Amino acid sequence: MKTSLDHLPHRKQRELARIVEVLHEEFEDALKEGTADFKKRGRILKIILFGSYARGTWVDEPHTKKGYKSDYDLLIIVNNKKLTDFATYWHKAQDRLLHLPEVQTPVSLIVHSRREVNTALYEGQYFFVDIRRDGIALYELDDEPLAEPKQRTAADALRIANDYLEERLPHGKAFVEGAEFFVGRKRYKEAAFLLHQSIEQAYSALLLVLTSYSPASHNLKHLRSLAEGRDRRLADVWPADQHQHVAWFNILNEAYVKSRYSKHYEISEEALVWLLERAHRLISEIEAICVEHLEKLGRSEARTTD
Predict the structure, then answer these.
(1) Which domain holds residue 73?
(2) Are residues 185 and 248 in the same domain?
(3) Number of neighbours of residue 227 by Cβ within 10 angstroms
(4) CB atoms within 10 A of CB 283
(5) Same domain for 161 and 61?
(6) For residues 169-183, b (16+ Cβ closer than 10 Å) or e, as one string?
(7) Mean pLDDT of the region 79-94
(8) Are residue 134 and residue 163 in the same domain, yes or no?
(9) Judgement on whether residues 248 and 278 belong to the same structural domain of the protein
(10) In terms of domains, do 84 and 172 share one?
(11) How much is the pLDDT for 63?
(12) b/e sequence 88-112, b meaning 16+ C-beta within 10 Å
């Protein structure tokens, strides 16, 4: 696996070094009171940079009209699946990185055990195959390589991607219709919850179709970062030139939990109307990108059968 960050500016290299330090510090802190054997033996095996910063295609334009800024996408590999629980072992690290003044670039984390990653590689999941090929190891406890990936046939790739699209995207469409119904009834909390689910399902559909992987996350910012990293056209769906629009997206991101359990959660009809319009555009864009990908897979299959 590659280890060089020479293609990145020095300030980005310094940020990544600090991020690795924080991840180790917070992981050790999360384990220090543990008495269970898996906690005592808990280790970070690898920290891998993937996505646009690994490929050299990142965008850092926070002051432009679109205001787009690529995230650092990091895969953390641990030695026990129990240590992948984000709320228990990684939430504090994520929160600390969000507020750390010396880290100005957003950080998106996914955590898996080595067995999970190797199993995904054996199955030929594109997401992990791409990370193994293009990722850059920022930290490695040992020199044990990840598994050799299995190559899927063109027919398998087309079938699996088509199944994901047919399974996931209809949920996104149904949930947005439900959100519209509740807006009409002025039941804004219910509308926000369903709208959150619509966007979550849409992003998951795209990631599954393109990569066969979508993290088990309800964090729309994280899913959005992964999706926009796969296709920059999606960045245009959420304009960042108005603070109000950014704030509305952030309020919606909290809806999965707070719209159901917090009496203080509030979202306006104006915000919901704007977010619904954006959600319809997102679903339309994602469907077009997925169909485009399926057509490409179909052509690839046709060539292999000729």
Answers:
(1) 10-140
(2) yes
(3) 26
(4) 22
(5) no
(6) bebbbebbebbbebb
(7) 95
(8) no
(9) yes
(10) no
(11) 56
(12) ebbebbbebbeeeeebebebbbbbb
Residue 118: name the closest of 153, 77, 66 by CA. Answer: 77
Residue owning tokens 């979550």: 200
| SS3 assignment, position 288 | helix
Q: The CATH number of the domain where 88 resides is what?
A: 3.30.460.10
Average pLDDT for the chain: 94
Smallest Cα–Cα separation from 97: which of 3, 43, 16? 16
Task: Give burial (CB, 10 Å; 0-12/13-18/19+) of 60.
Answer: middle
The length of the chain is 306
Residue with tokens 């108005």: 242
Question: Mean pLDDT, to the nearest integer, of 48-69?
Answer: 81
Same domain for 28 and 131, yes or no, is yes
Of the candidates 109, 140, 171, which is a domain's last residue? 140
Q: Please report the pLDDT score of residue 66 as a whole number.
A: 56
Pairing of strands 72-78, 44-50: antiparallel
Domain boundary among the residues 118, 140, 162 is at: 140
pLDDT of residue 109: 95
pLDDT at 253 over 90: yes
